[in-house]
Amino acid sequence: MFTIFLLLGTIRPTSPRVDAPPQSHIDPALINTCLITNDVKALTAFYAQVLQIEPRKSGDDYVEFPTKVGTLALFAASAQEKYIPGSATAGQNHSSILEFRVGNVDEEYVRLRPIVKSWVKGPTTQPWGTRSIYFRDPDGNLVNLFTPPPTK
User: Strand (E) positions, the chain?
Assistant: First the structure.
C-alpha cells in the first residue's frame, strides 16, 4: 500500500540566486555612427583623407574609422537591404551633422581644400566660441570639423 502526501502552499518569490547576474544600470553612450552608402570604396577613401585614420575593413561592405571617443562606420546599402529590408536609403541624410573635434580648424581647412568638393561654410567662429568648418561628404552628409574655444 502506498500513501501519497500532497502539500499545497503559496509560492513566494525568493531572493535572486547567488549565480544570477547582478542588475545594474549602464548609462547610454553613443559609440558608433553608421552611414549607409552606395559606394563604400569612395566614402572610405574620402574619410581616410579627412580623418587621417586608417580604416578597419570587414570585406567590401563594411568599414570602420575608430576615433578616441566613437567609431564612424560605413556600410553598403546593398548589404543593409539584405539584413533589414527597406530600413535605410543611402545618400538621403539631411537632418544630422557628423562632428569631429580637431586641433586647428584653420589648418584643416587649408589641408582639405583640394579634397572636399562641397563646402558649406569656411572657417568661422560660432557665437558659442567654437571655430568650425562645414562641408559635405560625397554622399551629401554634412560634416563639421571644429576646435573648441580656448580655455581661460
Answer: 32-37, 56-58, 62-66, 71-76, 97-101, 118-125, 131-136, 142-147
